[in-house]
# Entry
Amino acid sequence: MKYKRILLKLSGEALAGEKGHGVCPEVLSQISGEIADLSAMGVEVAIVIGGGNIHRGVAGTTKGMDRTTSDHMGMMATIINSLALQDSLERRGLYTRVLSAITMPEVCESYIRRRAVRHLEKKRIVIFAAGTGNPYFTTDTAAALRANEIDADVIFKATKVDGIYDKDPMKHEDAVKFEELEYIDVLNRGIGVMDSAAISLCMDNAMEIIVFNMFEKGNIARAVSGDKIGTRVFK
Ligand code: UDP
# Structure
């Protein structure tokens, strides 16, 4: 195994399935199955999950809502998703902990770095909820932040397509996939795979990112063993 401790970033939309919003039980079960495989390999797994399937801060502001309030709602959405994922993983007999950046002691643990690391050492799956706990940020930035804090070996960014392309592969047949990219190229080309704050944080701390389709059976195992898969962002 090339990577022993990974931070998996899932977007909220990944949970929504065909409907595009809410949480789809079948999709959730598929995702938890892939995570279970990962955990069975002995990899320490931390997860940051988005909230875009329920609420996205910027979307609220377009309807006249105060940005901070709207972002608070977005962070709450990530807690809902975290609990759904925790439930799905626990039904498979896995041990999990949700650690929230916004304290909600009746519902889940609060984020404490040392506690997160201890859970990982005990092979519990850690789900980081509520992003960074601050408005004006995204869960991509939360993923970059937490990955650095827990000293993860890599960020696995799960996407619908199998990596980063020079143009949208859903719209252009001649789109070409990048095998590897430097952080600075992602920033200069304005590639929206993760927001620029997240990419910058990874660049400044040499946190490797692998962008790939985790829904293709076996992809996660290949990624963990270091096989070339998706697009690797590094340097
Ligand atoms: N959010 C925030 N601070 C954070 C992380 C998230 O305010 O540190 C809010 C923000 O409104 C964002 C929403 O939570 O739009 C959902 O997160 P995100 O858009 O990153 O979810 P994804 O696109 O991954 O589903």
Q: What stands out?
A: The chain is about 40% helix and 15% strand. The longest helix spans residues 67-90.
